[in-house]
Amino acid sequence: MSTDRSIPLTIWTLPEDFLYARFAANFSPIMFDRHEEEFGARFPTYFIEYPFSKLDFVAARSFPVGGMENWGLVVFHNNMILLDSFLEDNANMTVDLLAEQYAIEKIVTHEIAHQWFGNLVTMNDWSEIWLNEGFASFYVGDFLKQDHPYLASSEYYLHLAQLLAKQ
C-alpha cells in the first residue's frame, strides 16, 4: 500500500497474523493522505510534507502501550491494529466488527497525527507532553468526524476532559 505521493506504508506482522492486518492496511494510506491534504490546506504558509520515504507499522505481540510513534515507524500492540480473527470470520457480528474497526481507525489516525505533532513539531519540555497528545487527539476527532460524525465529536470532548484532568 502507498500514499498519493507514493510513500510506502507497510504493516509488519507475524505470518499467521497477516490477513488480520487488511483493514488497517487499507485504511492507513487514506488517513495519511487526509493528514497531508488537511495540513496543506489549513497551514499553506507553514506546511511541511511528511519528510521520510516510508512509514512502517509493526504489530508487536508484547508491547506495554497501544501505540508508540517514532520517525517513520509506529509500533502497536497487535490487538490494537489487527482485526480480531473471530470478528473477521463471523459476518453476523456486525456491531462488534464496526466497533473494532473504529478503534483501529482511531489509533492509526492518532499515531499518524503524531508524525507531525510530536515528531516534526514537538514540545519544549516533557511537562508539555499534553500538547502532543492534545493535537493528535484533536485531529482524530476532526478527521474521523467525516466518516463517523456522532462518535468522533463526543469522544473528542471526553478525551480532552481526561487529558485536562491529568494536568
TrEMBL record:
GO terms for biological process, alphabetical: peptide catabolic process; proteolysis
The Peptidase M1 membrane alanine aminopeptidase domain, residue ranges: 44-157
Coiled-coil stretches noted in the UniProt entry, renumbered to this chain: none
Top-rank lineage group of the source organism: Eukaryota
InterPro entries, sorted: Peptidase_M1_aminopeptidases, Peptidase_M1_dom, Peptidase_M4/M1_CTD_sf
Protein source organism: Parascaris equorum (Equine roundworm)
Name of the protein described by the UniProt record: Peptidase M1 membrane alanine aminopeptidase domain-containing protein
GO molecular function term, any single one: peptide binding
Pfam families membership: Peptidase_M1
Any one GO CC term of the record: extracellular space
